[in-house]
Amino acid sequence: MDQWALRKVGFKPRIDPDSAWNIEDGSEKNVIVAVIDSGLDMSHPDAPQYIWRNPGEIPDNGKDDDRNGYIDDIYGWNFFDENNDLTDKKGHGTVVTGIIAAKRNNGMGIAGINPGARIMVLKVAGEKGISRSLNIYRALRYAANKGAKIINISLGESGVSALEQLGVNYADYKGALIVVAAGNQADNISKYGPPALRRVLPVAALNIEGTRSI
Question: In this structure, are residues 163 and 133 in contact, taking their beta carbons and an 8 Å threshold?
């Protein structure tokens, strides 16, 4: 697959001394990235090589060891179903996570932009891709409290949520960068959440010619 977008942001062949691959090649774990989306297919052959693990939780003992209100939240939490099943029934979260941190040099799929990232899986949407502001708010607080330095939200809807803004404010206060998709609506983002929220970094897409893709 031709990942021209990676070259556009500096990930050139490693023989180029200025290639970003010479700075970060995924050989070691680095920053915790929380992905607030529809979950993750952890059995996917090109899934991230590093999944965040909750250091305060003992697996499968049915107890809330770290006393954060979530039982056996080993790799994150499913706010949609209120359990620790992070299965992605929509597929969207798996795609987004792959763009961030898919394995590189494994002969399949794509290479993530940071294959060394430790992915914290926070599921807020089901198979229809519909979420609630309350669950996004809760996921933002969870991510911030568990040390995520990057939080990705590639979900959106018309209107701006005051509750989501509170969650963003909290995560920002805790030192996280909240990256959000500008959306596919080709409209003024001031009418569309979460890119209209304060203290977020909205990201839009360009095509190979460098012009707006929508």
Answer: yes
Q: What is the pLDDT of residue 1?
A: 60
Backbone angles phi, psi at 163, to 5 degrees: -70, -40
Question: Is the pTM higher than 0.90?
Answer: yes
pLDDT at 177 over 80: yes
Under 8 Å between Cβ of 76 and 86: yes
Phi-psi category of residue 26: left, alpha or beta, with phi > 0 → left and psi -120 to 50 → alpha: left
Mean pLDDT of 62-83: 98
Q: Which two tokens stand for residue 91?
A: 């597929």
* Mode of pairing for the β-strands spanning 118-123 and 76-78: parallel
- Residue 44 to residue 184: CA distance in whole angstroms: 26
Q: Which residues are CB-contacts of 57 (< 8 A; sequence separation ≥ 6)?
A: 65, 66, 72, 73, 74
Alpha helices in 88-161 (DSSP H): 92-101, 133-145
